C-alpha cells in the first residue's frame, strides 16, 4: 500500500464549489436563451441572475441534478415576477424618463381655464343685471337649491310668482348671454 491517508500529500482536490462554477459557466448562455424566449432581453438577464442566486443554495448537488433544478427555479422566477407585475399593474406604469407632453392631464389647459373664467364673468354680469326680485328668486333656486314652495315662503310671494320670476330670469339670461357671444359659441359646439 502507499501508506496511511495521513501520509499522502494532498493535491489540488476538486471541490463541489469548483463543479458548481463550471456548471454555471457551461449553462449560463442556455439559461439566458431559455428566459429570453419567455420575456424581453432585459427581464431575461434579471431573471437569469436571480435564478443563479437562488441556485447557489443547491451548489452541493451533482451537476446532472442542477440542470433540471436550474430550469425549475427559472420558471418559478418568471412566475413570481408575473404575479408581482400583475398585482402591481406594472403595465400601466409610466417611466419617468418618457416625455409627459403627450399624456392627458385631468386639469384643464390654460386656454380652457381662461375661457371658463370669461364665461363665468359673462354669466355673473348677466345675473347682476337681472331685476332685484328676479335675481333673488333665481339665486335662491339655482345657488341655494331651494324649491319653489320654499322660495315662496321665504320671499312672501306665491309659487306662481316664483315660477314667473324664474322664467323671466332664464329668458333674460339667455338673451344677455347670446348678446355677449356665449350662447352662440355653445350652440356652434353642439
Automatic annotation (TrEMBL):
<keyword id="KW-0805">Transcription regulation</keyword>
<dbReference type="InterPro" id="IPR007627">
    <property type="entry name" value="RNA_pol_sigma70_r2"/>
</dbReference>
<keyword id="KW-0731">Sigma factor</keyword>
<dbReference type="InterPro" id="IPR036388">
    <property type="entry name" value="WH-like_DNA-bd_sf"/>
</dbReference>
<protein>
    <submittedName>
        <fullName>RNA polymerase sigma-70 factor (ECF subfamily)</fullName>
    </submittedName>
</protein>
<dbReference type="InterPro" id="IPR013249">
    <property type="entry name" value="RNA_pol_sigma70_r4_t2"/>
</dbReference>
<comment type="similarity">
    <text>Belongs to the sigma-70 factor family. ECF subfamily.</text>
</comment>
<dbReference type="Pfam" id="PF08281">
    <property type="entry name" value="Sigma70_r4_2"/>
</dbReference>
<feature type="region of interest" description="Disordered">
    <location>
        <begin position="82"/>
        <end position="109"/>
    </location>
</feature>
<dbReference type="InterPro" id="IPR013325">
    <property type="entry name" value="RNA_pol_sigma_r2"/>
</dbReference>
<keyword id="KW-0804">Transcription</keyword>
<feature type="domain" description="RNA polymerase sigma-70 region 2">
    <location>
        <begin position="24"/>
        <end position="86"/>
    </location>
</feature>
<dbReference type="Pfam" id="PF04542">
    <property type="entry name" value="Sigma70_r2"/>
</dbReference>
<dbReference type="GO" id="GO:0003677">
    <property type="term" value="F:DNA binding"/>
</dbReference>
<dbReference type="GO" id="GO:0006352">
    <property type="term" value="P:DNA-templated transcription initiation"/>
</dbReference>
<dbReference type="InterPro" id="IPR013324">
    <property type="entry name" value="RNA_pol_sigma_r3/r4-like"/>
</dbReference>
<feature type="domain" description="RNA polymerase sigma factor 70 region 4 type 2">
    <location>
        <begin position="122"/>
        <end position="170"/>
    </location>
</feature>
<dbReference type="InterPro" id="IPR014284">
    <property type="entry name" value="RNA_pol_sigma-70_dom"/>
</dbReference>
<dbReference type="GO" id="GO:0016987">
    <property type="term" value="F:sigma factor activity"/>
</dbReference>
<dbReference type="InterPro" id="IPR039425">
    <property type="entry name" value="RNA_pol_sigma-70-like"/>
</dbReference>
Amino acid at each position: 500500500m502507499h501508506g496511511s491517508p495521513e501520509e499522502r500529500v494532498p493535491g489540488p482536490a476538486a471541490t463541489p464549489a469548483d463543479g458548481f462554477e463550471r456548471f454555471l459557466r457551461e449553462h449560463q448562455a442556455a439559461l439566458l436563451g431559455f428566459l429570453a424566449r419567455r420575456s424581453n432581453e432585459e427581464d431575461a438577464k434579471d431573471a437569469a441572475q436571480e435564478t443563479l442566486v437562488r441556485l447557489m443554495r443547491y451548489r452541493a448537488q451533482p451537476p446532472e441534478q442542477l440542470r433540471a433544478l436550474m430550469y425549475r427555479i427559472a420558471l418559478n422566477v418568471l412566475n413570481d415576477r408575473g404575479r408581482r407585475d400583475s398585482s402591481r399593474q406594472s403595465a400601466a406604469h409610466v417611466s419617468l424618463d418618457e416625455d409627459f407632453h403627450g399624456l392627458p392631464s385631468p386639469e384643464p389647459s390654460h386656454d380652457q381655464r381662461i375661457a371658463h373664467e370669461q364665461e363665468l364673468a359673462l354669466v355673473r354680469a348677466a345675473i347682476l343685471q337681472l331685476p332685484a326680485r328676479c335675481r333673488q328668486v333665481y339665486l335662491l333656486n339655482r345657488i341655494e337649491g331651494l324649491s319653489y314652495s320654499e322660495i315662496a315662503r321665504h320671499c312672501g310671494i306665491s309659487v306662481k310668482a316664483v315660477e314667473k320670476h324664474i322664467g323671466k330670469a332664464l329668458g333674460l339670461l339667455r338673451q344677455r348671454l347670446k348678446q355677449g357671444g356665449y350662447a352662440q359659441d355653445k350652440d356652434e359646439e353642439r
